[in-house]
Amino acid sequence: MVVISSPSDLIELLVGYQPAAAISAASQLGLFDALNDRPQPASEIATCLAANHSNLNALLEALVQLGLVSRTDDGFTNTPFASAHLRSDSDLDKVIRKEAFFSKAWLRLSEVIQSGNPILDPWKKRLCEQSDQTTEFLYALDALARITGPPLEELPELVPGRVLDVGGGLGTYSRALAEAGSTMVLVDLPEVIELARGYLADLPTGSVELIAADLFTEPTCGIEIESVDAALVSHMLHDYSEETGIGLLRSVNGAIRPGGFIVVNDFASDIGPGAFGVLFDLMMRVETGGVAHDLAVLTEMLLSSGFCDVRRAPFPAPITVLIARKDS
């Protein structure tokens, strides 16, 4: 745990938003698209972007110091990393836009603490009323899972077999597990399933079955009882209270054959590095009204839902993957 011991330490934390704001501004302006392999003076780039020359030059100089733009006597260019990863609609550009959106909600953290309510509307309402933003969000989650997520296809509990992907979004893990040899059943809300259908269209027919259902109203997650060998619950439990999460896990339990497995992929509030877990907990309270449960609570939730032999897979922190077996 870091202990603040001087005003300078605190000030360094307080200005931590500034690099993120500079990167977000560059993304919004299309700056990484405007820069190319040929050095360009700031005035030329400003004309291309219809931007103020002096202010754009200041942004470029900041990005040089942040290691995302290079400067020579002839002007500015992207670094190799920026050229490869930060152009419009790249994976990391999706993540940049996601974080810019949620940063506005974080500015209202004090309201959340006082009221006990999140800033954002419930997910189902946002899917209907803010489809552009929720689509961007789902693609950003896909990018994050592919870039930073654990290689779940390495787990023998998930491959091979018939596996339920609970609220699997676009199907990032369904794709990885199907390509590794499992037959997947992805269940999510109808609006999400339509996006997943396009995302997974290149996979062999039958490798991923798509089912549109509300996981919280359909028994056994909308599929036949005891019809899968295993289930994956990835980054869902943190959106809900302990009680609601146990209800979901019991529904998942009913879908798994006796002796089958559940794999929970999430972040726990008491797992670092540093303040990662506790800040993620705050993020859930701001965005969804959920909770980043600690490791002991996640374990107890599984035990209370009819699972046993809970253990943590050996992935590096902050990744928290719990594996449990359904009681026979």
TrEMBL record:
Coiled coil start-end: none
Regions crossing the membrane: none
SUPFAM superfamilies: S-adenosyl-L-methionine-dependent methyltransferases, Winged helix' DNA-binding domain
UniProt-listed InterPro entries: COMT-like (IPR016461), COMT_C (IPR001077), COMT_dimerisation (IPR012967), SAM-dependent_MTases_sf (IPR029063), WH-like_DNA-bd_sf (IPR036388), WH_DNA-bd_sf (IPR036390)
Keywords assigned: Methyltransferase, S-adenosyl-L-methionine, Transferase
One of the GO BP terms on file: methylation
Domain spans labelled O-methyltransferase dimerisation: 12-88
Residue ranges of domain O-methyltransferase C-terminal in the record: 162-307
Pfam families: Dimerisation, Methyltransf_2
MF GO annotations: O-methyltransferase activity; protein dimerization activity
Protein name (database record): O-methyltransferase domain-containing protein
Organism: marine metagenome
